[in-house]
Fold these 4 entries.
Entry 1:
Amino acid sequence: MSVHSIMMNINHGNLAGHEVLVDSWPEFKGILTQPHREVASDDSDFYTNMYAAFYRDLVAYWALLSSAVNWGQAFCIHG
């Protein structure tokens, strides 16, 4: 999912239970969408726990992942 698509979906209110995390704004190095904690209720479901990612700096992306991802769940990252 491109950054443009993410921002367009946010502007139209169509993010389907996801929230967007960025390392900094507007000069971002990493963006991650994650399911709202209330929505992602099944720890074993890859499809419920889907993330989308885009990054320009791998270290910033890893920092974003380490604080955002619930490592106790089965999940899938698209990017």
Entry 2:
Amino acid sequence: MSLASSFERVQASYIREWVRFHEHTIGPRPEGDGMTTPEHSRQSAARDLAAHAHGSTHAHAPEAKRTKGERRTRTPVHLPDSVVDLYRMSAAILAIHEDKCASGAIIASLSIPWGNTKGDHELGGYHLVWPRDLVNSAGALIALGHNVLARRTLRYLMSTQEADGRWAQNLWLDGTPYWNGLQMDEIAFPILFAEMLRREGKLEDLDPYPMIRSAAGFLLRHGPVTGQDRWEENGGYSVFTLAVEVAAMLVAAGFADRHGVPALGAVLRETADAWNARIEEWTYVRDTELSRRVGVDGYYVRVAPDDVADTAPRSGGVISIKNRDGAQAWARYAEIVSPDALALVRFGLRDPNDPRIVNTVRVIDETLRTHTATGPAWYRYNRDGYGEKEDGAPFDGTGVGRPWPLLAGERAHYELAAGRPEVAMQL
């Protein structure tokens, strides 16, 4: 079976399991709830987003005076009372992060971590646009049915792409680059985003092919090694970045075929096949101290040095650990793991029951999972230093990594792909 057909098969399986999860969580719609069609649900979602974006959550707004039952009738799907407010708040937060002047520009966050330590001289921050975060936010809006905003985001991406096909690591609202690191997943994600809109039939008058062709060309010329991983800390063979790159090249091949350029489509597929075939060579390690402790034969690492395939690697198999100092600032790459490996399943490159994936999930859970009052949570990677100090003092370049709610969601995505929606619900 070709990689392209396998990609489509696993993606289709993932979608089926998401539908099962959706039905399991939401349950059957009650008769007469007024929301019996997907189109009605999308319209309701758009109305909810518009209402929230214009302040309907304030105490003086009519919405605040509604009963729970009345509010539920305005929710785009019939949800349990326990999650209605969470759903609506998430939709509102996504909407308010779009700039009101730079149409389609969704910043990473309005928050300022450790804000009490920041001064006016520090221009950077989460109030910038990261293409990766932009695509993930806009992808959630597509799931909500808010395709108008999603199309605005695609236009923004098309207008801020650089001449060589890349996007800046992050940028100001007007498209001016701020940091200039090279993160290959940020070049690949906009391709996947265009495909999301195409599959929904919501591109309308937009033709993203020139953007896709340019971005795919950049991937061909500069991939698969990335200058920085998605955590903006290490270069090399990042398993997360590899998954996004390969998936994006398959999508780009489909666009090339539909635009009458089958030769380019063939090159993209062949390259995707070649990279996909070497993912284990680059990022799967066996018989390490960690694998023996967990009781598995091997696992996918977080990131491998770019010389990992060389006969005499100059790195010595060691990577830097950012936000740490002294002896803690370096580690053998084979001992550092991350939930990033689950991207191989999420983007359709590996079956959730692949023994290598199952082994890696065991290692991830054994090494990175912690238990909180509200459920399990996961760290970005072992030995992470991005977080406040042990005593709670603000992060100042070094610290102690903390669990990320995002990773619980990604862990749940894996359970959906594996056909276990009940487990996903618990996460």
Entry 3:
Amino acid sequence: MSGILSKWRNINEQYFMPILKGNIFNMRVVWVGVIGILLLILGNVLNGQTNLEEKENTNLKTSVINQSTPINEEQIIENKIVQLLSKVKGAGNVAVSVTLEGGSSKETAQNITKETKTTEEKDTSGGIRTTTESKESNQILMSKENGMDKAIVIREVKPEIKGVMVVADGAVNSNIKADLTKAVATGLGIASYKITVLPKQK
């Protein structure tokens, strides 16, 4: 608001005061011009504020979308198998359901510090008593990523596949059913007894 008032004083001193002193226009015409200029300035300021608010809201939505929960392991495997089996000749429409044993886990890098302290004491009979104290501390190693601390992951252990069910149009044919079973077993590296292939209901 102080910026608007400053602009108004400059305009008033440079343009309108000389006009009023010279009696070129009457007061009514001058004030109409003043009001028009003020409305233009206010309109530009408000428009700038609106654009700023819209930009901030957009950034907030993008941040929320980027932080949303990732797709789970079952869905990742199911999508992979559906894409694979849909390329098998005669398979037709395919649906896949995967059951996992437990969840995934990550093994992080750690700085392990071990301390051993040995103390020898003489007892009243002249013997020596030895006491050993051990202390171990673990500290997870971190790295900077996008300005944030993140644990260094050495290995990620995927959950074990407990079973896979496949429903396909072409499973009515025993040869195609065998091909689908073999494709799943090879693609996932699991035993065939964990795989069930059924024909889709007509």
Entry 4:
Amino acid sequence: MASTIKEQQASVEQVKQVITDSIKHEILMYVGPTVKGLQRFSSFVGGYPKHFKEHLEQSPAFKKMFITPEKLTEFQNGLLDANSVESIFFKKTEEYFSEVK
């Protein structure tokens, strides 16, 4: 018996759904200093933690402390240099939360 292979082309809606689903399941890791309610190296599926929305809006440095797990080694290496972007954002995040009540 001969089998037939039926080719299917994904619709635009199917492609959009796959993209939307992958964005919803994005994993972010917090690599900043431990602050009240958030430990260093905590992971979040689906984006930034909602309970820190206000802080994310007020502190661009804090927002930069959330990275994808693939970038962890690069980030950690950056922290070894006190003048690196990673170190500066880390320090700014510490300063920001030291002033938050």
